From TrEMBL:
<dbReference type="GO" id="GO:0032259">
    <property type="term" value="P:methylation"/>
</dbReference>
<keyword id="KW-0680">Restriction system</keyword>
<dbReference type="Pfam" id="PF00145">
    <property type="entry name" value="DNA_methylase"/>
</dbReference>
<feature type="region of interest" description="Disordered">
    <location>
        <begin position="236"/>
        <end position="269"/>
    </location>
</feature>
<comment type="similarity">
    <text>Belongs to the class I-like SAM-binding methyltransferase superfamily. C5-methyltransferase family.</text>
</comment>
<keyword id="KW-0949">S-adenosyl-L-methionine</keyword>
<dbReference type="InterPro" id="IPR029063">
    <property type="entry name" value="SAM-dependent_MTases_sf"/>
</dbReference>
<dbReference type="InterPro" id="IPR050390">
    <property type="entry name" value="C5-Methyltransferase"/>
</dbReference>
<dbReference type="InterPro" id="IPR001525">
    <property type="entry name" value="C5_MeTfrase"/>
</dbReference>
<feature type="active site">
    <location>
        <position position="69"/>
    </location>
</feature>
<keyword id="KW-0489">Methyltransferase</keyword>
<dbReference type="GO" id="GO:0003677">
    <property type="term" value="F:DNA binding"/>
</dbReference>
<dbReference type="GO" id="GO:0009307">
    <property type="term" value="P:DNA restriction-modification system"/>
</dbReference>
<dbReference type="GO" id="GO:0003886">
    <property type="term" value="F:DNA (cytosine-5-)-methyltransferase activity"/>
</dbReference>
<protein>
    <recommendedName>
        <fullName>DNA (cytosine-5-)-methyltransferase</fullName>
        <ecNumber>2.1.1.37</ecNumber>
    </recommendedName>
</protein>
<keyword id="KW-0808">Transferase</keyword>
<dbReference type="GO" id="GO:0044027">
    <property type="term" value="P:negative regulation of gene expression via chromosomal CpG island methylation"/>
</dbReference>
Length: 423
């Protein structure tokens, strides 16, 4: 079997499924487990730190681990960095078969920090019978020193190892998500997968095929997949006044816009349209429950202004803002679940004309859109409320990146076209 520790909502499992293989995932979070079950993934709901290792001994080909990143992530308090010496101590002792976790846990500033040492408990037990054949682990970049410690232990056990930082965008993920990766194998030379994409596209050469340009958010979401997929907002004013489709203070999503007929995909991009038509407009089109998602958009009669759309990662002053012509920045959610928003601004050439037009309100990203930017299929069965769904998405391994990491271990050729992003 392939054992997936801290399996989450199924990033690694989704990758394995596309490659024609299954794993068994250990996961504690209730809603991540429900998502996995809905996605037909084998799951044991358990605390990885408490689960025994004996059920896997003599039966394990591969071990996957993505310990919770909240203690280390830039999105949190990063107390894992304070606890890092304790985690290193735990790994050193677990590698020698000494379990001092209880004492170290009492000294940790964040109890989640020590979870990064848990894979070594499983590896030590499995190594006694010459298992596993291979290992793949993933975490935020600050965990790289810990992965180097793991690599040194695994090399002493006869593994070939590689660890370093990879950018998910270099493998076709529409997100510049940088992660610390550890790869190890008893039967092949461990090395990172060859990047398939680059920030600037490269032509083919005598040395092999060139790399494709990074995948943009617009391409991934199917919002006008052209050479320059420019999303626009058309906003016009009419003498009759009346309500705007997204009034100030509203918390609408692009899905709401589709249902209300105010958002229409066009061959050259996405068009979010707003207008002023008079008080009767709200009665005719304002109630989303009375308007089918497939219904045509209303007619727009006013002079239009074009707006460029970007994704803002949170509401902090240093938030990453990326045009939809680019990959997203790293998606992280948690308490900022509702603050990852699409924002609009007029292109520089049209700022003067657009100054008098109403600026569209920020539009909250949907779980479906965020999941797609993580390379999950658009119909992936996320369980729980919006906050729980966003938390799962932000913590997940992008399946497309995971597939690039796993395919060589499985001796399976990866076809990236199997990961259809837009639906």
């Amino acid at each position: 079997m392939i054992v997936d520790l801290f399996a989450g909502p199924g990033g690694w499992s989704r990758a394995l499924g596309v490659l024609g293989v299954r794993d068994v995932g250990l996961e504690w979070d209730e809603w991540a487990c429900k998502t996995r079950v809905a996605a037909s993934q084998l799951t044991v709901r358990t605390d990885v730190a408490m689960y025994p290792t004996w059920p896997f001994i003599g039966r394990t080909r591969g071990l996957i681990a993505s310990p919770p990143c909240q203690a280390w992530s830039m999105a949190g308090k990063r107390l894992g960095l304070v606890d890092q010496p304790l985690v290193h101590e735990a790994v050193e002792n677990l590698a020698a078969g000494r379990d001092i976790r209880e004492r170290l846990l009492a000294a940790c500033r964040d109890e989640r920090s020590l979870l990064a040492a848990e894979p070594m408990r499983y590896l030590h037990a499995l190594n006694a019978v010459g298992e596993p054949e291979w290992v793949a682990m993933e975490e935020v970049p600050d965990v790289l020193p810990l992965w180097k410690q793991y690599a040194a232990v695994l090399r002493s056990w006869g593994f070939s190892t590689w660890c370093g930082i990879l950018n998910a965008a270099d493998y076709g993920v529409p997100q510049t998500r940088r992660r610390a990766i550890l790869l190890a194998s008893r039967v092949r030379t461990a090395q990172p997968p060859t990047p398939t994409h680059a920030q600037v596209g490269e032509p083919d050469s005598l040395f092999g095929p060139g790399r494709t340009r990074w995948v943009s958010m617009a391409e991934a979401l199917g919002w006008g997949a052209t050479d320059r997929p420019v999303p626009t907002v058309c906003a016009g004013g009419g003498p009759g006044g009346g309500p705007e489709p997204f009034p100030s203070g509203s918390r609408k999503t692009l899905s709401d816009a589709r249902e209300r007929g105010t958002w229409t995909p066009r061959p050259d991009g996405i068009v979010l349209q707003s207008r002023r038509e008079g008080a009767g407009w709200a009665a005719r089109h304002g109630a989303r429950e009375n308007r089918a998602a497939s219904a045509p958009a209303p007619t727009f009669t006013a002079e239009a202004h074009r707006w460029s759309w970007s994704l803002r990662s949170n509401n902090q002053a240093n938030a990453t803002i990326r045009s939809i012509e680019e990959p997203a920045g790293t998606l992280f959610f948690g308490h900022r679940a509702n603050e990852c928003t699409w924002i609009a601004e007029p292109p520089a050439a049209q700022q003067e004309d657009a100054a008098s037009a109403p600026v569209p309100e920020p539009i909250r990203i949907t779980a479906r859109e965020a999941g797609t930017l993580q390379t999950f299929p658009a119909n992936y069965p996320w369980a729980g409320n919006k906050g729980q769904q966003f938390s799962q998405i932000g913590n997940a391994v992008p399946p497309l990146l995971a597939a690039h990491l796993l395919a060589p271990h499985l001796n399976i050729a990866l076809n990236p076209d199997d990961f259809t992003l837009a639906a």
